Amino acid sequence: MVRTGTGTRHTARMSVLLACWLLGNPTAWGDVPSPDVLRQVQSKVVKIYGAGGIRGLEPYQTGLLISAEGHILTVWSTVLDTVEITVVLDDGSRHSATLQDTDVSLEMALLKIDASDVPYFDLVEVAEVETGTWVLAFSNLFGVAAGDEPVSVQHGCVSARIDLDARRGVFSTPYRGPVYVVDAIVNNPGAAGGALTDYQGRLVGLLGKELRDARTSLWLNYAIPLTTLQPTLQAMLEGSARPDNPFDQLRPAEPWDLPQTGILLVPDVLDKTPPFVDAVAPESPGRTAGLLPDDLIVYVGEELVTSCQAVRESLAMLDARQPLRMTVMRGDELRQYEIPPQAENRTRE
Amino acid sequence: MKILLSLLVTCCTTATVSMAADVLSPVKEAEAERVAVATRASQSVLAVFGPRGEGGGSGVVISPDGYALSNFHVTQACGNAMKCGMADGELYDAVIVGIDPTGDVALLKLLGRDDFPHAPLGDSDQVSVGDWAYVMGNPFLLASDFTPTVTYGIISGTHRYQYPAGTILEYTDCLQTDAAINPGNSGGPLFDSQGRVIGINGRGSFEKRGRVNVGIGYAISINQIKNFLGTLRGGRIADHATLGARVAHDYQGRVVVSDILTHVDAYRRGLRYDDEIVSLAGRTIGSVNEFKNLLGIFPKGWRIPLTYRRDRREQTIHVRLLGLHRAGELEEMVTPQQRQQPDRPSEPPETPEQPQSPEQPEATEVSPVMRGMPEIVREHFASAPGFVNFYFNQVERDRVFSLLRESGAPLMSPGAWEVRGQADERGAFRLLLSDQFAEIELATGMARIDLQGDLMTQLDPPRSGGLLACLGLWRLLHTLPPENWGTLEYAGTAPLPFRSGLWDVLIASRGGAEIRSFVGTEAGTATIDALEFSPELHVDPCEVYLRDYDLIDGLWFPREMEIRVGDEVYDVLRIESVQVLQP
Amino acid sequence: MKQAELLSRESISHLEIDRMQFSPNRRKPFEIVLSASAMHGLLPLLAACLASLANPLYGQNLTPLEQEAIRAAVQEADASVVRLEPVGITTAREGVGLSLAPSTALVVSAEGHLISTTFGIPEDAGQVVAIFADGTRTIAAEVARDHSRRLVLWKTESESPLPVLPVANPSEVHVGEWAIAVGRTYSASHPSISVGIVSALNRVWGMALQTDAKVSPVNYGGPLLDIEGRVLGILAPLMPEGTDDLDAVRRYDAGVGFAVPMWQVRELLSRLQKGEDLHAGVLGIALVGRNPFGPVVIGACQAGSPAALAGLRQGDRIVAAEGQPIRFRSDFLYQLRPKYAGEELRLTVEREGEQIEIVATLVEELPPYERPYLGILPDLAANVESGVPVRYVFPGSPAQAAGIEPGSVILQADGQDITSVESLLAYVRSQWVGAKVTFRVERSDAESMEVEITLQGLPQELSLQPPPLLPEPVEGEAAEVATGRINPSLPEHPQTCLGYVPEAYDPRLPLGVMLWLAEGTSEQEREALLAAWQPVCDEFQTMLLVPSPEDGQDWSLEDAEYLQKLIEQTTQRYEIDSRRVVAVGSRKTAALAFRWAAASGGAVGGVVLLEAPLPATLVIPPASPESDLSLLLVASPASNTARPLIQTKQRLREKKHPVAVLTTRGTPLDPEEADREAVLRWIDALSRI
Fold first, then answer.
1. Per-residue pLDDT, B250
2. How far is CA B574 from each of CA B465, B558, C341, C423, C626, rounded to the nearest angstrom?
3. Please, which of B34, B187, B361, C122 could form a disulfide with B74 given CB 3.0 to 4.6 Å?
4. Which residues on B lie below 8 Å from A186 (Cβ)?
């Protein structure tokens, strides 16, 4: 919608702006991070001391009180790999904690101290936020706060909301669900298990362990959304059966594969043979869709593929009951083709 | 429900076009205000370099005549003469004035102007977590045109403690911020949202990713620096304080004295093993860390209030703080290569608390320390043992003396003083002070001492801790010009018990004893408000508090002198008449 | 009313109407809660909206307004921010496969031109796909590349015209205003945001704005926006002293990020659109001394360089460039660095009191610089008012052929008085191999002679015959500074360092320095190292420093700053001949020793590699008048690294660095006495001219 005059552009932009403002976060007009909101949140964040102690494996992390009786939500890590876990509350009181439950695929752990009416995050109160929302991160990074000293606060904004792509070894973590990427460096030694909140102090995310993108070796700054942890956490608290992890990349019951498409790739001789199409069986779904020999397959669905092996892996992840989109390069032109689902009327060979 | 929704949306957008501008204008207004504060504040920020442009750090100018703050570990690498670039693109010569190695603070002075852009000092005790703050300086030495880098963030924590970690730099009671602090930012200012200096950035937790910021940085609090500013202006090597006692948590978690030396002031004031520390300098103490954190912000030699509790009775005392390091130990650590010139007579072994006698360095002879210095810097530098830059000690001493001279002019004449009045305990008194002797007649008897002799042993009148010697020296401070004293130095600023504010302190030594005079300098007039005469170390000094200055017989003189030794009041003299006798 | 009010606040926070509209299919855990109170929640929202119509500013609270302004700016820019995915096979850069991560680009013309950075997309990256916000994918063809500002111009074909964002007006950009960094590498559909402020203008010699928003490969190539959505610049990995991308990238997310100003990019478009690759312009001069605030005087003009061809001469003082006054080195670099090869640089220089205007046409690359060599060792200890006394003449050197003997004094070169060792060195270095120079020399029998000498290149196999030992320094004042065993330390660096200063140190005879990067050695081993080398250090007036890395075990690039500060502190305390400052590296520390020495701007004169070839991935900069680096490869005859060592020697000589090889009898790591003496003799010879 290219507009020429800046005048019209300006008002158009403004109305878009106002629309979002009115509809976006109508109650977000609470005040800037007021000192009492900060104190309130800090009072619900605890310092956890346990195993570890050599460089890179600091013996401390952070935790969140989530019930008046002293349930503490934190991240599953080596720090909890010990019998005596000590928890220091915001008022400086020291408690020994027991590990009640863990969920490795969500990298989540539940501790318990015996206490009564301690301040806590009310799980009903958790909020979901969009990209661009200003957030605060509360944690005991580098173990700076000791005794009754309040935990540290960092400011930032939600940079993006992505799915942790652990499958292709980009992030070496069992957790594969959505994360809030934050534009402040919130994952430091000791910060894991800290709180990500919005400017009204409502709990938004749990700060994860330090994670590095294996491809670009960049550190990732992120928090796991509470809305994702909430069902399993509720189950842990009530001791009921746990819902299965919605983000396990289970292979679809009826995955796509090359034979269904009639496409034959070039022999896979190199360690990374580029996925050129060797032949397309006549009257096969691939041919009717428009694929030709010597096409170079570039995308299978949304997945960039750079080898025959990658094509097969990506196909195995896609549900045959959905149409298959493939993008190929022919000469120096990019072409997109769609192969209709074959699953219902597949003839058994 | 859908219809209602669409109605809602249309009614909002149609009536809102005119308002859209209103939404952005407050944002632009706030941004413009921030730009104004950042632009104004950045005018006072320094890029600090060594004399030949090597190394590099940051600083901030805090007075129009060019006094500026930076980090000790920045100026230490640059040496005594520095080059400082400012946002106006100019490069100025600067000279080191004073340093506080343990607190990692340095005071320098830019030369060549008396109208430097400078930043006001804020109050770091008013800073709270969540406040917005600016970090300004020269990270990665990017300021090739000397304009500082400005980064913006919030205060992440206050009253933090940072261990020395292998260096001598200890950050106590410091501020923590998530505004980006990187190598090169050291020594630069942390501004609050109004552009007042609330800290000096000096450190970050760099272990994780090498020398790169990871969202955490520390700044020395400006209130701690204010405590040391007087000592630094005096060209000295400031030292931090210890109580002479150790504290620990007892089994109930209370903070108690776990060990105390018997020769220290705290012991003399009554503090004993197992007393519970309740508050220090007005701040309640909840943990050992908090005690160490708070004690770390005070200079050696200050007297601060301490409240302790023993079997449920609370007691408040004013304790003189000892130095954290042996005398001269800091100097060795700091200036290994600038040892005194070989021809200087070897110094007598120095007893703690006893300042050496710095001779007047010959201005002509150029010591190797000053060889590479530009002319303008050499004019503002003088080296002497125990000092970083003795030149500025003389500047401060002369400033206080000239103020004293202006407000007490008639007393400056050489004649002896005859003072009469009533003493609360000892009835009518006649006091006679001359250059040679000091004499007092009291209802209980007469005492006289020889001011030219050894003052360490003439402590009359009895149990006064050396009142006559104290008053004798007090008179000599008016009549004897500074050059004629053995040593007469500016010692920085210090508080007085039960009163707020800071006093300039002069230390004079004569006849083997030492007298500290606390000079109040509000509104340009100077009055000596207190004297402390210590005949020897680790003994309660004779304290004289001079109050209610007034015109008595045409002379500007205190009406009341309260004399205390240790915890008892010796007597209170009420002055009725003063006469300067012709010689 | 309390209950209702609480509830309404409660329900509104869950309602989030916009969320329901835009992503209906995602199953939300709070579904049940919503529907029950949905109707109930709407009414209070309606009331709030109507209230807002009446009082437009809703109290002074800024956060939501600023949040929304930022979101709107990014939403406006969304369609112009494109994701680039290299589709070709990973390519090798010196044998190392760089896996190609996605990067970001910005639309700069309605016809489909995009600008991105060179980071992550090497020249031979093969096909690159551009993915637009609405998901369409097209091939992006590289049009041209700007190697100086690290930008790439791409052309894509699209049916409808692409949206081009408005550019901020440079006069309205202020330090402290909002700056929003936008990238598109996390997901093709949603942009990533980082919010900061403008930290400084005119950085990287005027080629960059600085921001404290988090800039990293996640958003390199994307736009830096102001609060109204206008483009301030293109986010790029720029560093004033960075030699290549890797240096700049190491400081990602540190709150110090750069963007090439958009108004500068717009001016470049016309040249780039013509398919013309742009390279930084090179002048070919070395400035005197290392003090950035000293006078800007030309120390050497490389033969065949634009400077030499334009008539610049060694000793000229630059007083103006492009009409701007030049006070310091940085003023000069602000005028030179932004220029491209082929452009002119107008200079005003002062020579013998008069001002000369000179115009030089900058080039992309200089002819390889080969250092001219006279073949003498100056006597550093002798105090002579002017001229350079000769301590030793290398056999087979041009000086020897011309009959110069030890003890004679070189007074003039081509009629110019030689006042010091530095001035003779600068004059010779400004010549070229094959140049004829007439020297006036006063022989030891006080008779003076004129002799013309043709300078040669440095002999590769430096003769290691023993020049006479250094003369005994005259007994004088005892040195004031510590000699013998020392432990220098830096206040803000935890690293420790053992050191030895020759007992007979005399400030009038500058010391050489061996900085030994011992790897993983214990305290005793470092003590043994000191003890072993002490005698030869005394003999050759050379200081030995054995620092330990920060974590006590392995050296890393982070220690380079500590090493630089250690040398600076040592140069302050002792008289040091910087050309005889040598970094000694073994297997694991060879790369760090070389990389630090090359980047030390002349503070280090040589590198000794003990049985340690340089890694293949290490970029070896070409020799230049500034970096006067000589290398000594120490290897045992039987050592199995012969082949890689020969390869290292080849690569160093290709870049015209003088390399000598010492074959030791003992093992290189703890050589025998004779070998240690040979190493020290090589270091002693580094002050050759």
1. 87
2. 19, 9, 88, 78, 79
3. B187
4. 215
